[in-house]
Design brief:
Blueprint lengths: L1 E5 L6 H12 L3 E3 H11 L2 H11 L6 H12 L8 E4 L5 H10 L6 E7 L2 H10 E4 L5 E3 L15 E2 L6 H24 L3 E5 L4 H21 L15
Parallel strand pairs: 1-3, 1-4, 2-3, 4-8
Antiparallel strand pairs: 5-6, 5-7
Helix pairs in contact: 1-8, 2-3, 4-5, 6-7
The structure holds adenosine monophosphate (AMP).
Adenosine monophosphate (AMP) binds next to helix 2 and helix 3.
């Protein structure tokens, strides 16, 4: 079970990826989280990606493909995984294709949300500097401390100008990725501008029949193949 969640910043792909991963009992692999942890840890990877991330630019394909290839080799990803934030370029999509050879079906979900709503959501998003949890800031709930005791802060790349740049980067770099999966009839476009539970429900409705159809059609001796499925 391999699911790729594609959506602009603020579209809720992190939240939805976590929900679907929990339901499927597979790991959620967020490349943004991996990079942020590397920056916090102050390691070599973090040092090499910090500038690009704070400017809202994409990190280089070579680094990202190496990182994902390494992560997918972990035993917990053997049964499948939900990718959140990868692939973001056509080069990454092609590399993922090669990595997935013989690893079972892939479905791609695109979440669409109008830019004005994305900017509104991101201006209200706060993250905990200690545990990484997300919270929503508003005049009605101006809480600045997380349940864990850490401080809730605006992510540097959620600054409005950086958000505009990230949206432009998304539109330009990720459009070919959508075409890539659409061309294989593996892409399911879902309105991400609905209440969170309804988005989850629509994702489940889109993916359940695909995986059911796939697994019910497999011979007992199946050991891989057919990386893309159509609905
Ligand atoms: P996210 O948390 O997914 O919004 O990612 C935050 C930032 O991490 C992005 O704006 C990029 O700078 C970087 N990043 C995450 N995933 C990728 C990727 N697949 N390719 C390039 N850069 C990435």
């Amino acid at each position: 079970m391999i699911l790729v969640l594609i959506g602009p910043p603020g579209s809720g792909k992190g939240t939805q990826a976590a929900r679907v991963a929990l339901a499927l009992d597979v790991p959620r692999i967020s490349t943004g989280d991996i990079l942020r942890r590397a920056i916090e840890a102050g390691d070599a990877l973090g040092a090499s990606v910090g500038d690009a991330m704070s400017r809202g630019e994409l990190v280089g394909n070579e680094i990202m493909i190496g990182l994902v290839s390494h992560r997918l080799a972990h035993p917990d990803a053997a049964r499948g995984f939900v990718l959140d934030g990868f692939p973001r370029t056509i080069e990454q999509a092609v590399a993922l294709d090669a990595l997935l050879e013989e690893r079972g079906p892939l479905a791609a979900i695109e979440l669409t949300v109008p830019d004005s709503e994305l900017r509104r959501r991101l201006s209200q998003r706060r993250v905990c500097g200690r545990c990484g949890a997300s919270a929503r800031f508003s005049e009605d709930s101006p809480e600045s401390t997380c349940a864990c005791g850490g401080s809730l802060v605006l992510r540097p790349d959620d600054d409005d100008q950086v958000v505009r740049d990230r949206l432009a980067v998304y539109a330009k770099a990720t459009a070919p990725v959508l075409e890539f999966y659409r061309g294989r009839r593996a892409l399911h476009t879902i309105n991400g501008n609905l209440p969170t539970d309804q988005v989850t429900e629509r994702i489940n409705l889109a993916i359940d029949p695909i995986f059911e159809k796939y697994f019910s059609g497999l011979p007992d001796t199946w050991s891989g193949g057919t990386p893309f499925l159509t609905s």
